[in-house]
Amino acid sequence: TSLMNYMLQVGDTAAPERFIRELARRVPQHEEVLMTVAQKLEDKGRQEGIQLGEARGRQEGRQEGRQEGKLAVARTMLTNGLDRNLVMKMTGLTADDLAKIQH
Question: pTM score, two decimals?
Answer without folding.
Answer: 0.52
